[in-house]
Amino acid sequence: MVFDYKLLANNYISSLTPYQPGKPIEELERELGITSAIKLASNENALGPSPKAMLAAQNALLKSHFYPDGGCFLLKQTLAQFLNVATHQLTIGNGSENILEIIMKSYLSDGDAAVISQYAFLTIPLLIKSHGGELIKVSALNYSHDIPGMIAAVTEKTRLIFIVNPNNPTGTYTTDHDLKLLLESIPSNVLVVLDEAYHEYIKKSDYPDTLKLMKTYPNLLITRTFSKVYGLAALRLGYAISSPDIADILNRARLPFNVNSIAAIAAEAAILDQDHVKRTVIMNNEGMKQLEEGLNKLQMDYIPSLGNFITIDVKTNANEVYQKLLHQGVIVRPLIPYEMMTHLRVTIGTTDQNERFLKSLKLVMGK
Amino acid sequence: MVFDYKLLANNYISSLTPYQPGKPIEELERELGITSAIKLASNENALGPSPKAMLAAQNALLKSHFYPDGGCFLLKQTLAQFLNVATHQLTIGNGSENILEIIMKSYLSDGDAAVISQYAFLTIPLLIKSHGGELIKVSALNYSHDIPGMIAAVTEKTRLIFIVNPNNPTGTYTTDHDLKLLLESIPSNVLVVLDEAYHEYIKKSDYPDTLKLMKTYPNLLITRTFSKVYGLAALRLGYAISSPDIADILNRARLPFNVNSIAAIAAEAAILDQDHVKRTVIMNNEGMKQLEEGLNKLQMDYIPSLGNFITIDVKTNANEVYQKLLHQGVIVRPLIPYEMMTHLRVTIGTTDQNERFLKSLKLVMGK
After folding, report:
1. N or C, fewer C-beta in 10 Å, chain A?
2. Domain range list for chain A
3. Do residues B250 and B96 make contact, with C-beta atoms less than 8 angstroms apart?
4. Residue of A58, A95, A231 with shortest CB distance to B58
5. For A6-56, what is each residue's pLDDT tens digit?
6. Of A10, A110, A252, which is closest to B107 when you measure between CB atoms?
7. φ and ψ of B303, to 5 deg
């Protein structure tokens, strides 16, 4: 008899459905035998990375044979100064997915509960399940986090609450007022994790200043990334800001060399190049306007978004529209895995990319 | 009352002693105000990375704003062809420490036991503890794995056995005969993980051919790395070879984007540059001879090693010798964390580095 090594695995691992990433450009071009496909599927920065970050990364390659500085000494110095926090409040990770994983490994045990909103970024429920946690999913309100609903879902078993702000893939956000309501209403032994991957894109007076809130609520953790506005998704760098005690725990739970040197050095240079961030945000604002106007002309509904993406209701099977767009060489993201059966998420691209998407959509929708 | 967020953490995380990495060159130079320090402390490749791998990495930087291919399609193709295994037998990780972590996350639960040898690479017991596993440490025999002892330590609770081959930091190895004895003696529901980080350095007829053994023993997993002979430690890339069923589980347990693009692309080019591997192995063999002869002249004891490092018994407090060597600008590794109180581990360097180490050691030991 052959032994079953799938059955032998921890059941919360073997039962996982792997995350479906956006289709890579090379894969589509290989499949269709085409060139010049565009990818608006993974909320990447269409402007690319900061040239200064790339120069730093090139130089860093010369030391590829040395192990990274596991403590990310220089990056933490630069980041702490930029954010006006202490270095011992920081935890650096292999992308913010690694940071989220470290938080769960540290604070979630078999049978503990974690509260998330319906439509929250799919990696979060995936990680909760993979740590044996019980997933409490609270229905969304107009595609947005229902904060009173999430407060009501907290029980004695709850260890973690996740707020994705703005939320991916809906683009909706939780206001300062609602976040304070949450923090005031729950016991302080429940950790509130704010995933702020798109934080740098936002200029809204009622978007919460979480670094300030952390001074009053030490159970607040913030996660951010260099994969979006900083354009370094390939290199994998994310970080957490928290109270020093929580950071001490997270730094014990991480792998000794979880961050590669190239990412750490590129990120340091990227922080110091805020001009590139500004250019990215300007491009995003203009692109968002271009897409909204184009969609209005096509009389198509979308969810107003604060991120570098917009989610469109195509009012028909999203997968079919997605497939037709692929044949136009345009990769977007159907939201079937979120049970949003008629929605497509589209990343804001360059002016030309946005134009090409709108033309392809018009054609595909027969408008 | 201020809430204690350290106490709130899972106790197998908060009780961890973080891994102490080798001291970075920059740190020593900063502290002592010196330049031209050398580091023989982390078993890095003194020859550096393959120039072809670096060229590939430079080109890969141009796409830094795109997410990596989570499935590492191209790297797996190249690696599978090189190893003569199937792509679905491979799991790619953020260094082999990430691979070890994924194995434990998949196959170790709270209260399960894992068997290791005394003096096994310290990251392994650290990871076992951080997954709530019970650590069964079997005393070494002449600094080597005691295979009959490890067999005897297996109980119904045992899920994993780790064999580091050759072992870091002792350089000793487990023979084909002993490994077969182990595999024949234990139940097939116990997974045997062979950490072969230094595999490429070895030309010994009785060193086990684990890829061949895997065909008979599907409970065998092999982990390897690009941090040693391939000289890509900064980039973080390791991999596992296993049966397809185990690989399926490990690929569910990994993060969606656990491997950065630069590492994947550099590794692919590095595999194709086996000339660089050959040059590295020749340099290592010559350097090992140089160090052995130098140590013989100084009448100092060492443990014969199959890796790219050698462990020396200084017969006095290793930490004091380490400190004195630091003041000579030479960084090595005292093995106090392994409870080897009079041993120093020294990486094989270039001819000049080896010479400088021997001179400094002579001076420091008053020989």
Report:
1. N
2. 7-48+275-364, 51-273
3. no
4. A58
5. 999 998 898 888 777 888 888 889 888 888 999 999 999 999 999 999 999
6. A10
7. -95, 120
Interface test with A, best of B10, B20, B64 (most A CBs within 10 A): B64
Q: Which amino acid is at B286?
A: E
In tens, the pLDDT along A167-213 reads 999 999 999 999 999 999 999 999 999 999 999 999 999 999 999 99
Given an 8 Å threshold on Cβ–Cβ distance, is A110 in contact with B109?
yes
Q: What residues in A contact B232, CB-CB < 8 Å?
A: 64-65
With beta carbons under 8 A apart, name residues in chain B contacting A21: 67, 70, 256-257
Residue B1 has pLDDT above 60, yes or no: no
Residue of B nearest to A101 (CA): B255
In this prediction the ipTM stands at 0.96
Of the listed ranges B22-31, B60-69, B94-103, B116-125, the one predicted with least confidence = B22-31
The runs of H, that is alpha helices, within A33-72 are 51-61
Long-range contacts of B356-360 (CB under 8 A, 24+ apart): B356/B38, B356/B330, B357/B38, B357/B40, B357/B291, B357/B325, B357/B330, B357/B332, B358/B290, B358/B291, B358/B294, B358/B295, B358/B298, B360/B325, B360/B328, B360/B329, B360/B330
Nearest one of B301, B311, B321 to B168, comparing CA atoms: B311
Mode of pairing for the β-strands spanning B158-164 and B113-117: parallel
- Those residues whose C-beta lies under 8 Å from the C-beta of residue A90, and which sit 6 or more positions away, are A76, A79, A80, A239, A240, A241, A247
Taking CB atoms and an 8 Å cut-off, how many pairs form between chains A and B?
254
Q: Which CATH class is domain B51-273?
A: alpha beta
Tell me which chain B residues have a C-beta less than 8 angstroms from the C-beta of A27.
69, 73
| Chain mean position to CA A226 | 10
Tell me, what amino acid is at B180?
K
Q: What residues of chain B lie within 8 A of the CB of A249, using their CB?
A: 5-6, 9, 13-14
Disruptive mutation site among A11, A242, A255 for chain B (greatest number of B CBs within 10 Å)? A255
Verify whether the Cβ–Cβ distance A101 to B235 is below 8 Å. no
The answer on pLDDT for A2 being more than 70 is no
Q: Does B5 contact A262 at a Cβ distance shorter than 8 Å? A: no
Residue B4 with chain A: CB contacts under 8 Å = 245
Render pLDDT for A104-149 as a digit per residue (tens, 0 to 9). 999 999 889 999 999 999 999 999 999 999 999 999 999 999 999 9
Residues of B in contact with A70 (CB under 8 A): 19, 21
B111 vs B304 pLDDT, higher one: B304
- Could you tell me whether strands B238-241 and B220-225 are parallel, antiparallel, or unpaired per DSSP bridges? antiparallel
Q: Are A39 and B66 in contact (CB under 8 A)?
A: yes
- CATH architecture, range A7-48+275-364: Alpha-Beta Complex (3.90)
